[in-house]
Design goal:
Order of helices and strands: HEEEEHEEEEEHEHEEEEEH
Shape: elongated
Strand order of the largest sheet: 4-3-2-1-6-7-8-9-5
Number of domains: 2
Helix content: 25-40%
Radius of gyration: 27 Å
Number of strands: 15
Largest sheet: 9 strands, antiparallel
Length: 252
């Protein structure tokens, strides 16, 4: 083979290699563009009124009393999904059809990251993706996001107020020992964390439980239309109206 032919073959190979790199680069750009709605590093986000921030590789909930440790592993999994959301597949611009995709009525579930926001809708009929709404436009995504999970603070932080051993109870000041009530007062789950309550200024009740060799108290009350519980008078939790009245009605 002549030197001239060798040069042609070498140049052709180099050209094909460079073209290949260009094609790969273009495809990579397309992939990145496809995932670019929340297109910067996610160090904080909000779902409705619940907001979270990343500090020292751990996620924290911005509660009414300051930062409260969150479930870092759970949130990391969620954030990975958030960063994969793209708006490539438009399915509707018709506001009258929004109910078909889970955007009618309340509560709404709105995800906010870095100044951008999306409303989260229902899963699609094949349960392979989620509808999201940006303004009046509805898009189909290939990301699975449950509205119920996202809107539940318990998905992000542990809302268990207390974990007391039911089988070691000696006596209580309750008028009943119904299993459902005992379960509530020994393993109570809150709705949110509240600012400190001055219980000397609000009406409240105490559930007193004697165990084998110690005593525990669950304080419940109401302030400004919000129902609360505490086991230490330091950290206060918002509880549901149903839980409040279910327990209050049974205190002797």
């Amino acid at each position: 083979m002549s030197d001239q032919k060798k040069k042609i073959i070498i140049n052709l190979g180099i050209s094909l290699f460079l073209i290949g790199l260009m094609v790969l680069g273009l495809n990579r750009d397309k992939i990145l563009t496809k995932k670019a709605f929340f297109n910067s590093r996610t160090n904080s986000f909000c779902v409705n009124r619940y907001c979270f921030e990343l500090k020292d590789k751990h996620w924290w909930y911005r509660s009414q009393v300051g930062l409260y440790q969150a479930k870092t592993e759970n949130i990391n999994q969620m954030v990975t999904k958030f960063n994969q959301i793209n708006l490539e597949t438009l399915v509707s611009t018709n506001g009258s059809k929004k109910h078909l995709y889970g955007f009618e009525g309340k509560p709404q579930v709105v995800l906010k990251i870095n100044g951008r926001k999306l409303e989260i809708g229902n899963l699609n009929s094949s349960f392979t993706g989620t509808y999201v709404k940006n303004g009046d436009n509805v898009f189909a995504t290939e990301i699975l996001l449950s509205k119920e999970t996202l809107a539940n603070l318990n998905s992000y932080i542990d809302l268990t107020i207390n974990k007391w051993p039911k089988d070691k109870i000696k006596k209580t000041n309750l008028k009943t020992q119904e299993e459902a009530i005992i379960e509530k007062v020994t393993n109570m789950v809150a709705l949110d964390i509240l600012k400190k309550v001055d219980i000397s200024k609000v009406k409240h009740d105490r559930v007193v439980i004697d165990f084998d060799d110690y005593q525990k108290q669950l304080i419940i009350g109401e302030t400004d239309g919000v129902y609360f519980a505490s086991v230490d008078e330091v950290l206060f939790w918002e509880i549901s109206q149903d839980d409040y009245f279910a327990i209050k009605s049974k205190i002797g």
